[in-house]
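Report of the visiting student (M.T.), summer placement. My assignment was to run the structure pipeline on a short list of targets and document each run. The first record concerns histidine kinase.
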Amino acid sequence: MIDSLTSRIFAIFWLTLALVLMQVLMLPKLDSRQMTALLENEYRQGVMLEQHIEADLAADPPNDLFWWRRLFRVIEKWSPPGQRLVFVTSEGRIFGTLQKTEMQIVRNFIGQSDNADHPQKKNYGRLELLGPFSVRDGEDNYQVYLLRMANSPQSDFINLLLDRPLLLLIVTMLISTPLLLWLAWSLAKPARKLKIAADEVAQGNLRQHPELEAGPQEFLATGVSFNQMVSALERMVTAQQRLLSDISHELRTPLTRLQLASALLRRRQGENNELNRIETETQRLDSMINDLLVLSRNQHKNELGREYIRADELWGDVLDDARFEAEQMGKTLDVPYPPGPWPLFGNRSALESAFENVVRNALRYSNTHISVAFAVDNQGITINVDDDGPGVNPEDREQIFRPFYRTDEARDRASGGTGLGLAIVENAITQHKGWVKAGDSPLGGLRLTIWLPLNER
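After the run finished, the structure tokens were exported:
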């Protein structure tokens, strides 16, 4: 077993090349139409025919006028069953009961086998010729050939291949193609496993793959390094999550004390602007900690629980709540194309939360008008959420999905957001193999577009 990938490819290349060359060079030698020596019984039969024909001709003196009749009589008398005799005179004249094509075959064979001391045989499709055998007739000398049906005729297709070397090469390459494809597949198999494992890591599934630590040395070493990398990433992520959890726990204790102190101070001194400001910032800090923990949990969660969901059931309640909030804020929310009973396969909570974040974002930054439109095709569902707010500069549109990113426009910290909502949205949509992007809205503000695949497992 060759363990090195380089050596394996080199060996397979030369082995395949050697097999093809051997086939091309050896197959013509296996052609049954090649000249071969007679078998012992065939040679004995020819010698006996020589003797009988010579004796018969000697007993029948030649007639100068119709001398050729003696040859046809001998041919008819001494032709073995299922075979025909052919006489060739010293001048090259051919006598025998032959068709035009058979005459051409005989002439071809005479040109290749004319030595009576070493008679041979050759196939011509379904016919076979044997000879020559020498027969003396006084001062004349004839060469006698036997024409018979071939015992195992070679197929016309094989004849065609052997007669056309280029066609033989093409057929040889076609026959070797499945073997080469199988070899290529077996060589690429470790690379495919590595790609699948890398895709899982890209999706946040940090698990080791023992099957990578097999195969050629190069892939084995790569598989070991890959699993070590995954282990290191998993330790880093676990440490990060533990750190975030510890920080949130430590922050919540003084935050709770701050909220309690604010409540006691309000009871003693009553309402004032300073206390309201402290309470507002305290609530914002609490919300920020919650969003940060949600984002961290979702980014590194290996697998979300998934189920089949209908789009109208998933987002119908969110739209109803958003309409009510818009009315309370003196704004208008239109849904020109509502969601239909389109099938989705995903996590209900994550998808609902992502859509709600986008709609609330539009409500927060719009002036008076918000529009939510749904569309579907064979591939997936597209959701466009538009507002008539200040919008976002083109250079900032890719950055607004980063955690804590703030623009210099009206969408800043004064709006009350934590800067984590769109990061949570992008993470949830990406986990469902979709995408989200920002663009210009026909209403004059920002358009957020979400695309999700249908029935994607």
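The CA atoms of residues 110 and 132 lie 8 Å apart. DSSP finds eleven helices and 13 strands in the chain. I thank the supervising group for their guidance throughout the placement.
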